[in-house]
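PROTEIN DESIGN WORKSHEET
SECTION A - STRUCTURE
LENGTH: 201
TOKENS:
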């Protein structure tokens, strides 16, 4: 990272700063131990209260400027997003001391065909959480009340609870922390192109 950082600083290179950050996100999608595999998701509920939780990034498109994550249709995230589509995603790569903050508009993917293709590509252990009988967030009297349906032969039960959220990026802010001086930039989506500018760390 130090070489990249030096190149960014020496050449005042906004594009390199962004490209490196986006490459890190993409490589983290399949890296379960990668810091950027998980982002904090912030939504706003109907009472204008913020809600924060972790989500696993499942897809990132540099071309379409979209991020995708998965959730249970019964979760509070869904009602929050339907109430207010403005969301924030935040993560931090400890090795590179790189913070990435994404502002986006979130929407549910409603095409059953698209959802089924995603579902079939998931590991069985990833599908298991959608077979929980009680809805996420429901009050229970005992941990013994957490029960799951058994997976059927076709591996399809639980699919009725599965949802994928597509986030259309409005802006990406990156912050590189470094002893030589922090670097911070924001890139705003202008008709499908991210235009960047340096800002004070």
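SECTION B - SEQUENCE
RESIDUE ASSIGNMENT:
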């Amino acid at each position: 990272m130090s070489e990249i950082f030096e190149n960014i600083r020496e050449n005042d290179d906004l594009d390199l700063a962004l490209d490196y950050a986006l490459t890190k996100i993409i490589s983290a999608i399949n890296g379960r131990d990668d810091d950027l595999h998980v982002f904090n998701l912030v939504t706003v509920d109907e009472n204008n209260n913020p809600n924060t939780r972790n989500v696993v990034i499942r897809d990132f498109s540099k071309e379409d400027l979209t991020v995708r994550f998965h959730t249970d249709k019964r979760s509070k995230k869904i009602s929050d997003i339907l109430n207010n589509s403005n969301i924030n995603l935040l993560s931090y790569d400890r090795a590179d001391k790189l913070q990435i903050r994404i502002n986006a508009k979130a929407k549910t993917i409603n095409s059953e065909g698209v959802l089924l293709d995603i579902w079939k590509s998931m590991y069985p252990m990833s599908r298991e959480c959608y077979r929980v009988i009680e809805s996420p967030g429901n009050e229970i009297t005992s941990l013994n009340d957490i029960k799951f349906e058994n997976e059927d032969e076709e591996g399809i039960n639980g699919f009725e609870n599965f949802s994928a959220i597509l986030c259309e990026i409005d802006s990406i802010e990156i912050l590189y922390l470094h002893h030589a001086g922090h670097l911070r930039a924001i890139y705003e989506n202008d008709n499908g192109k991210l235009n960047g500018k340096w800002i004070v760390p």
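SECTION C - NOTES
Helices lie at 2-11, 14-28, 76-83, 112-121, 124-128.
The mean pLDDT is 94.
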